Amino acid sequence: MGSIGFIGAGNMAEAIIGGVVKKGLYAPSDIVIYDIRQDRAGAFSSALGLRNAVSPRELVRDVPTVVLAVKPATISVVVQESKEQLRDRLVISIAAGIPIASIVNILGEDARVIRVMPNAPALVGEGACALAASRACSTEDVACAREIFSAVGRCLELDEQLLNAVTALSGSGPAFCFMFLEALADGGVRSGLSRETSLELAAATLKGAAAMVLETGKHPGELKDMVSSPAGTTIEGIAVLESRAFRSAVMDAVVAAYTRAGELAK
User: Fold this and answer.
1) Which residues 6+ apart lie within 8 Å of 230 measured at CB?
2) Residue 52 main-chain phi, psi, to 5 deg
3) Are strands 90-93 and 153-157 parallel, antiparallel or unpaired?
4) pLDDT per residue as tens digits for the range 172-210
5) 4-160 falls under which CATH superfamily?
6) Any idea where the domains of the chain sit in the sequence?
7) CA angle 88-97-30, nearest 5°?
8) Number of alpha carbons in the 13 Å side-chain half-sphere of residue 136
9) What is the reported pLDDT for 117?
10) Alpha carbons 166 and 110: distance in angstroms, whole number
11) CA angle 58–60–66, rounded 5-degree value
12) Residue 235 to residue 229: CA distance in whole angstroms
């Protein structure tokens, strides 16, 4: 796949780089990174055998694909500084809330820009993300981006107008899952298990339940019914969750995150 550059070497960039190297998509020597914190970039590049650029312009000059992994507040400055070189590159942005049009307006209508919304589990290779592409992107450009982000989890292609919903669901969703996981573990402790045992079982339970949905293709309601025996323990617990409007609360949380994502985008 040639070479690739990352402007910004934070946690998400490190996760993506680790994923593509592990999958064999890029050799470490084909990856160039730049970060304003040169000590961090230097340590990371030395540890993995990456190339370290001294400026965004130097990085862009040497690679056909550039991943913008900087804070949303600084992305326009980074693009503006390197716009002449970026115009004929594939530009992939993971800056939350920054629309494709913001980058295209700087680079021009022919700019090949892909916007990706990754999530925190990408840090352990279990991400769930979605991407949207500018009009100038080819099918090969989209395939390239999907292959890169599939190296750290699942990656779907969607219309850009749906990315705020993705932000709410898979972007904010891990935090909701962490809260549920913590509550499950607390319930185990309340029932007599040690904290360590309860947390391990709760995490494995949540991971296993998600895997059953993805691997069987069955509806969660059907899988829930498989676990719920007549007059058994599970249905008693479900009755409590239903009485406390558990599902409505979760849906409302996602919608609230979606509304906020729209506000921030503006």
Assistant:
1) none
2) -115, 120
3) unpaired
4) 999 999 999 999 999 999 999 999 999 999 999 999 999
5) NAD(P)-binding Rossmann-like Domain (3.40.50.720)
6) 4-160, 171-265
7) 40
8) 17
9) 94
10) 26
11) 145
12) 7
User: pLDDT tens for residues 105-160?
Assistant: 999 999 999 999 999 999 999 999 999 999 999 999 999 999 999 999 999 999 99
CATH: 1.10.3730.10, 3.40.50.720, 3.40.50.300, 1.10.3470.10. Which one for 171-265? 1.10.3730.10
What residue type is 208 in one-letter code? Answer: G
Query: How many residues are there in the chain?
Result: 266
Is 152:127 a contact under the CB 8 Å cutoff? yes
Angle between helices 195-216 and 220-227 (to 10 degrees): 130
The helix, strand and coil proportions of the chain, stated in percent and rounded to the nearest 5, come to 60, 15, 25
Provide the token pair at 211. Answer: 């895997």
Structure tokens that stand for 223 in this block: 């899988």
DSSP, collapsed to helix, strand or coil, labels residue 112 as strand
pTM here is 0.90
Which residue do the tokens 């230097």 mark?
A: 42
Token duo for residue 129: 């993300």
Residue 233 C-beta-side C-alpha neighbours within 13 Å: 0
**DSSP state at residue 126:** -
User: Which amino acid appears at position 15 of this protein?
Assistant: A
As a whole number of angstroms, the distance between CA 203 and CA 177 comes to 10
